[in-house]
Amino acid sequence: MRLILALALSAVTALAHAQFPQKPIRIIIGLGAGGVADGMTRTITDKVTPSLGQPFVLENRPGAGGNIAMEAVIKSPPDGHVLLLIGPALVINPALYTNLGFDPLKDLTSVTTIAIAPFALFASATLPVANVGELIAHGKQKKMNFASVGAGTAGHLAAVMFGAAAGLELTHVPYRSIQMAIPDLVQGEVQFVFNAYPPLAPMAQAGKLKLLGFSSPKRLRAHPEIPTLAETGLPGFEVGGWYAILASAATPKEVMTRLNGEFTRALAQPDVSAAIEKMGFEAAPMSLAESERFLARESEKWVRSVRLSGAKAD
After folding, report:
1. Which one, of 42, 44, 29, lies nearest residue 89 by Cα?
2. Above 50 in pLDDT, residue 3?
3. Which residues lie across from 248 on neighbouring strands?
4. Which DSSP state fits 188?
């Protein structure tokens, strides 16, 4: 009798998984509404909705560096109907916060990485440098400051990685927003910043900042004329931002496989990848295993940077 009941329960469970999704899928975004993350997510989910047969509902839950969004997904039923969209905070926060109350890399599992973008290194136009090699040489002669939008943020930690790789002693100057940092960058009060490309590109095009390069392993398809930092003075240097979609770690494998297949097919479509490029990213669909390996590598990199920086959020 027990065997019959076990087989019956297994059959019911398998049927439920096969019928996934059974209701709208919520994607909780650990960032404020109206940004690149929203636009990118909508672009992708618009392609996935027809094949899944259920709509997606985007829910922005900013705050605590992404911790609120992560915890909300971790505490949701592990059935694939509540997902998380987040960036490097996923792997930064375990080192940045002393008492998170959860372990993102154990309590969550990756559906797929969806997009990757290197940082752009912008320097003040007041500096007598034309590339990253000259910036490093300048920094060894005269101590430099760098801007970020806060201690422990990706831009802050990317600059810490840069300083360590280049052998520079740097001073961190945090701002509440990149817009607030612009006047000091233009005037040369702070010498450089690692930031996403689109917000500061107009300042570089106007000659008020110098774009020294991207922190990618190779030149970007969208900007082949702009060199990488690795090729102009810092061999092997690579760091960037990304977005990934995750689910509760207890989500059934069949559901994870279905979600991964739907999202990666959507990301492979030319119009989707073109739209993502316009947002300053490159589409990066990965299998379940590839995405988990990617996050493990990113965790090692960012945790090392947090420790070098000495940053703490609590």
Report:
1. 29
2. no
3. 108
4. T
